[in-house]
Amino acid sequence: MNNLFNYFAQYINKFPLYFVTYSTRQTLSTVQKDHHVIHWFRRDLRLHDNKALHFALESGTPVKCIFIFDRNILDNLPEEDRRITFIHRQLSRIKEQLQAYESDLEIYHGEPIDIWKSLAETHGLKEVYTNRDYEPYAIQRDKDVDAILNKKKIPLHTFKDHLIFEKKEILTQQETPYKVFTPYCRAWKESLDADPENIQYNKHLIPYPLNLKGRLLKIKDPQAMPSLKSMGFAEAKIHHYPTDLRNTDMSDYDKMRNLPAKDGTSRLGTALRFGTISIRETMKMAIKTNETFWNELIWREFFSQILYNFPHVVNEPFHKKYANIAWRNNEEEFERWCQGETGYALVDAGMRELNKTGFMHNRVRMVTASFLVKDLLIDWRWGEAYFAEKLMDYELASNNGNWQWAAGCGTDAAPYFRIFNPESQQKKFDPESIYIKKWVKEWDTEDYTAPIVDHKKARQRCLKAYKAVV
Q1: pLDDT tens column, 156-173
Q2: What pLDDT shows up at residue 31?
Q3: What is stated as this protein's family in its record (predicted)?
Q4: Label partner for 264 (CA 20 to 30 A): which of 56, 150, 189, 247?
Q5: Please, what is the average pLDDT of the chain?
């Protein structure tokens, strides 16, 4: 009997979803016709392996799906913002999928608080389901929405879907958040307890099954997809960004990831940012194929818990002793950095790639960031804001964390005098100048601009400025 019990307990541990959710689901025939729940799409633009959507569908009440184009975010974006075009296209796909089941994706444009005040008055709305977001604005928005729904006694159910471990789930032995990546990474892996041979059974990575048939709210007259123009945007040209894991091979990631001329990175940042792929399926792929890529995904979780536990990093350095650096903040030099006209070819190639495509190779991101902060002595927040405007895969936690890492004021233990030499980086990682020639057409001709600073002198100037505050 004990052996049988142990086997059954092990089986439940491998497949917890099926024992938790299906046993409690009521049949739709017992639900009043006007009763429904809402699934609110945000950073989870997919139907498959979507935790909040799964539990909404398992609630036993018909599900209506919605998305809100948030004016608090959109009003600060340029007319041809690539990310809005990307979101719009992905929502169109979801809308078509739901309409195939005689339902719809209802799309709103406005202030989320005003929209939810109206939705809370909807007759028959019983519950709201959504996946958690960890940025300060999103946390406050969800508190405000919860307060609105609470007045109507409508529960707001939120779920962890964007990360494997969130908030304070990975802590030191002193029960405090980690501040350095390496011990965090070690603790993260210990918590996952991953066996690559049986990774599909890991309780943290099991997918959430999707069953739409008979579980969506029937909508007789589905609304037309709102146009970008109606929201004040124009169609932007989008270069290829994978939205799923098909054709993604990371087996050589550790060997190829630092070579910008090679197609050696995943380019999955945009898909992860907007949730067109599941972090669970992505993590499983990484664990099975390449540990270096796996570690990169854990960096993403590390920076998310830094943002959540130390929200001051949004506007201030993680290590506050660096708050009083005497930045030069030369606006003309900043503009030349933005346009890729610094006279340092690897920096210029990276910035031109970013401006043209919304993407920049990871190694080059570090070089361009180091150059702005250390060579030009320009406040890292200027560069962070520019990347936030341009990057397709922009998310606050990773962008902020990586900029503070480059500035030497962030979480990693490396000293502030780590300063990349852009010319040495070029020789090491783009020795044949293939990447540079692609983006800086006039390179190696008399038309190419002269360097705006002398790296050696700029390095000494930077060290002096940092030493003054340390």
Answers
A1: 999 999 999 999 999 999
A2: 61
A3: Belongs to the DNA photolyase family.
A4: 189
A5: 92
Would you list which residues are annotated within the binding site for FAD? 253, 293, 296-303
Closest CA to 249 of 225, 261, 275, 267: 267
pLDDT at position 30: 54
Q: Checking phi first, is residue 275 left (phi over 0); if not, alpha (psi -120 to 50) or beta?
A: left
Residue 214 pLDDT > 70, yes or no? yes
| 118 has a pLDDT exceeding 60 | yes
Asked if residue 210 has pLDDT above 50, the reply is yes
The gap from C-alpha 410 to its chain's centroid, in whole angstroms, comes to: 19
Whether 3 shows a pLDDT value over 50: the answer reads no
